[in-house]
Amino acid sequence: MSSKKKKKLTPQQQEYQKFAHAREPKRPVLANCVRAFLVGGIICTLGQGIQWVFITYFNFNEKTAGAPTVAVLIFISALLTSLGVYDHIAQWGGAGTAVPVTGFANTITSAALEHKTEGYVLGVGGNMFKIAGPVIVYGVFSAFVVSIISVIIKALGGM
Amino acid sequence: MLQGHQTWVYESKPVIIGTAAIGGPFESQGGLAADFDMFHDDLWLGENSFEKAEKKLLEEACETAIKKAGLKKEDVQFFLSGDLINQIIASSFAARTLGIPYLGLYGACSSSMEGLALASLIVDSKFAVNALAATSSHNAAAEKQYRYPTEYGAQKPPTAQWTVTGAGAAVVSQQGEGPKVTSATIGRVVDMGLSDPFNMGAAMAPAAVDTIEAHFRDLNIDASQYDLIATGDLGRIGHRIAGDLLKKHGIDIPEEKFTDCGILMYRSDQPVFAGASGCACAATATYGHFINRMKRGELKKILIVATGALLSPMSYQQKESIPCIAHAVSIEM
């Protein structure tokens, strides 16, 4: 906890938090990292395999195979989410399932499924990007900032 | 009658003449399964939303409790209920079906004992012959309300808890056969500045300790008066903290007497992290398991301390800490 936040707590609260903290199990960070590495690695290897299939059998090249590969991964992720399997894999795999595109697909599919009861427009449409929305907003914004910086450096004769 | 600071002593000793505990698929595999009245093997209960499913659970619990009390809906004057869905719609919609004059409650997971304490108060003061106290929670409806979509793959920490899918109800009456409600201690809101919604046990433990302390102080008794003292849904971590905190405050409750509904609800091999939570946790454990044990003569006097975390998803996002509460009700055979 930051010292700024701690300042607002009374001594009694601080004492209790120390007391409680000593009795809480820690997140198994190391085990989570290893699992994330394994699961994330498996997903990426699977993606690589799909890309290879597209290049070898479907007349794509390394550049153009990207889009259909991502589409297949998104489809698999959406399917596993709707079958109720993805969240169980995610509990084990942690960031390994959240970081690849499959995690992004899961955020959208799960929110769409969850809010179907409120209708297709306000429910599914309105809530589909509930979790994915911030990723898109800040993804696009940071891409914009980086592009501006790149343009400025180029204009100044750099690179 | 008020005794001490915050404790009601019911002079007429209202009787719990009928109780019911209804559970979902996960609860049917749990440690208290034998004491439930009915299970559903589908989270949807054949309805098209989780919210409707929870309403149905609550309706069934109320109807079963009234039936077991040997009464008809018309014999019950007041219905007190609370749940975890926004604007407590499960309770209000169940009240629409039941048609019994209704008071909606919100005490988060402490609603079960808040309801029982108030129903007993109404009966004790002779403002009703029979009053019904009920509460419900639904795992998926609660996840949707407080956390992420149910199928969203977020990794939960070991301090997280599993919301019980179920409903519990009790009919309190001026006379009849059954366990009697003797006193209740209304808790005050305790906030120790914790703000992690995946660690409710640690946030709620001080509230439970505060209420237990107040109960003993107001009635001038100690733990030896009780065969069992059960907290609502502290889970394994919160229970341990509460136990140590009580010792630190000089209150000695023997380990075999002190338990938590959130620990008892599921078997240790069920993947529920630190244990169970939700309004239905304390409600189904009390109205199913504990009342049955009292009727079998295994327990004579128990104290149920239902704990509640009074946060909202909005207060959490606005970086507020979690205010917590606990209400204790003493039940005697």
Q: What's the topology here?
A:
The complex is a heterodimer of chains A (159) and B (333).
Chain A: H1 3-7, H2 11-21, H3 29-57, H4 66-82, H5 86-93, H6 95-98, H7 101-114, H8 120-127, H9 132-155
Helix pairs in contact in A: 3-4, 4-7, 7-8
Chain B: E1 2-3, E2 7-9, E3 15-23, E4 38-39, H1 50-68, E5 78-82, H2 89-98, E6 102-104, H3 111-124, E7 130-137, H4 139-146, E8 162-163, E9 166-173, E10 180-185, H5 200-219, E11 228-231, H6 235-248, E12 258-260, H7 261-264, E13 276-277, H8 279-295, E14 301-309, H9 313-317, E15 324-332
Parallel strand pairs in B: 3-4, 5-6, 5-7, 8-13, 11-12, 11-14
Antiparallel strand pairs in B: 1-2, 2-10, 3-9, 7-9, 10-15, 14-15
Helix pairs in contact in B: 1-2, 5-6
Protein name (chain B): Stage V sporulation protein AD
InterPro entries (chain B): SpoVAD (IPR010894), SpoVAD_sf (IPR038369), Thiolase-like (IPR016039)
GO molecular function, one term (chain B): acyltransferase activity
Which structural traits does this protein have?
heterodimer, A: 159 residues, mainly alpha, 9 helices, B: 333 residues, alpha/beta, Peroxisomal Thiolase, Chain A, domain 1, 2 domains, seven-stranded mixed sheet, 15 strands, 33% helix, Stage V sporulation protein AC (chain A), transmembrane (chain A), Spore_V_AC (chain A), transmembrane helix (chain A)
